[in-house]
Write a structure and sequence with these properties.
The protein is mainly beta. The protein has no helices and eleven strands. 0% of the residues lie in helices and 48% in strands.
Length: 124
């Protein structure tokens, strides 16, 4: 079971980035997926989640209206479109697979597989 994130980098405040997470080794379409982030010196923060068929999403208040999570089950990939980026969005971003089949789990618990992360830096 593996998750591999990509798409991070440097963005200016107000800019956009799209993160991707390629999944393998499990039946991707059976599981909710989420994105979380961790800034230096801080705990891991859940950001957005999507259910198994992509029909339902939830996001943390800190990113609602700016970040959009989506998935393509044919490609075993989950995405995070980030817009109106702020310096406080600077963090390492991780995707995660839900431990069980079922609805989205908000928060960082309830996920059993994490990727290695991709760094996002928002700075002018």
């Amino acid at each position: 079971v593996q998750l591999v994130e990509s798409g991070g980098g440097l963005a200016q405040p107000g800019g956009s980035l799209r993160l991707s997470c390629a999944a393998s080794g499990f039946t991707f379409s059976n599981y909710a997926m989420s994105w979380a982030r961790q800034a230096p010196g801080k705990g891991r923060e859940w950001v957005s989640g999507i259910n198994s068929d992509g029909s339902s999403t939830f996001s943390a208040a800190s990113v609602k209206g700016r970040f959009t999570i989506s998935r393509d089950n044919a490609k075993n990939t989950v995405y995070l479109q980030m817009s109106s980026l702020k310096p406080e969005d600077t963090a390492r971003y991780y995707c995660a697979k839900a431990r069980d089949t079922g609805p989205i789990v908000t928060g960082v618990f309830g996920y059993d597989v994490w990727g290695q992360g991709t760094q996002v830096t928002v700075s002018s």
